[in-house]
Amino acid sequence: MVPWLGEEEAQAAAAAVLSGWVAQGPRVAAFERAFAERVGAEHGIAVSSCTTALHLALIALELGPGDEVIVPSLSFIATANAVRYVGAHPVFADVEEATGNLTPETVDAVRTPRTKAVLAVHQGGVPADVHALRAACADWGLPLVEDAACGIGATVGGKSVGHGALLAAWSFHPRKVITTGEGGMVTTDDAGWAERLRRLREHGMNVSAAQRHASSKPIAEAYLEVGYNYRMTDIQAAVGLVQLGKLDAIVARRRELAARYEQSLAGVPGLRPVRDPRHGEGNFQSYWVLLTEDYPVGRDELLAVLAEAGISARRGIMASHLEPAYAGHGAAPLPVTERISRDSLILPLFHTMTRDQQDRVVAVLRGRAGG
Any idea which residues bear N6-(pyridoxal phosphate)lysine here (predicted)? Predict the structure, then answer.
């Protein structure tokens, strides 16, 4: 992944620096409004990362010790960690092989009377079937939180990922489709949650620093509850506003490159590429291929072959339940998760990728398969 950054982002960041206001301020507020509008949410709350966004979303649901939250193991470890931050217990569910996402069936398989929420991930920019998950969670009386870290620009039923979500968390890390360097966002339609989350990201203050400085009269703030320092800076937000304006072009380019990968790799035995699900369109934040038994080498050997050819690929999405941080945690059998994590790899895909660069990747994959 190479972020698509240029002179416009540099100028926006410089303008924020020269304005004299670099902390959370008017540019953050503008980015929140623009982002929420883009995904079809009433409120956006900018924060320092998607991990802190997930943490705040789970606080909004008032989850705590003794509560179970169902999460996919097939996800970056922050998904499960956020559950532990609030003292709750993450319960790992399996995923479907085609999308790498939770389904009502995989959730139901590990649901217990102690389950208090479900945390679904739009993995690698492949949208989860949130309509099916929301319907199932409504039947079970459970809130559904969406980890949309990779999801900006993906759609479900023609609408943005996150549209209609109870709470959704987003990432602007450099490996994501748009970036602010580091940063995240919570989106929601609930005004009460939005107000509380804005307080919590700023130490629990009832009046933000920007509001105090904008007032013509001295304001003594009060700290209504124990909060956090999860703020985004105006410099980051300035970059984010420019990046958001590029989103359509970025997603179109990524989908173009993904289609060319699929066409170029067609007929190579043992390679199964990620594709759009029936219920939506992905943004191809990650382009992964799953190796089957027909491919002549294993995933790790193929990564080494690519590296020797000067091509930077990565292992597939991690299985969190197999990481040392979750040793002894316990999990139901997760055969699909373990298969995807063991046998998949992520290929290079970035906005400025040339045909020659992509052809080099394809040549190695075809050559190692004997095709």
Answer: 176
What's the one-letter identity of residue 106? Answer: T
d(Cα 188, Cα 54) in Å, to the nearest integer?
A: 12
- Say if CB 2 and CB 357 are below 8 A apart: no
The span from the CA of 77 to the CA of 343, in Å, is 19
Cα separation, 29 vs 11, in Å, equals 19
If you average pLDDT over every residue of the chain, what do you get? Answer: 96
d(CA 151, CA 280): 12
Region of poorest pLDDT, from 31-40, 189-198, 206-215, 318-327: 206-215
Which two tokens mark 360?
């080099």
The encoded tokens of residue 211 equal 């509001």
Q: Report the amino acid identity of residue 101.
A: N
Q: How many CA atoms lie within 13 A of 19 on its CB side?
A: 17
Could you confirm whether 246 is annotated as catalytic?
Answer: no
- Cα–Cα separations (whole angstroms), residue 228 to 55, 198, 243: 10, 10, 27
CB-facing half-sphere around the CA of 340: CA atoms within 13 A:
25
Q: How far apart are CA 185 and CA 204, in angstroms?
A: 17
| Active-site residue (options: 116, 159, 176, 217) | 176
Residue 318 confidence (pLDDT): 97
The pLDDT value recorded for residue 371 is 59
Question: Could you tell me the two tokens for 220?
Answer: 């003594």
Q: Write the CA distances from 130 to 42, 209, 249, 283, 332, integer angstroms.
A: 18, 37, 25, 16, 23
Task: Check the CA dihedral 133-138-141-142 and report its sign.
Answer: positive
* pTM for this predicted structure: 0.95
Give me the pLDDT at residue 84, please: 98
Q: How far apart are the first and last CA of the chain?
A: 27
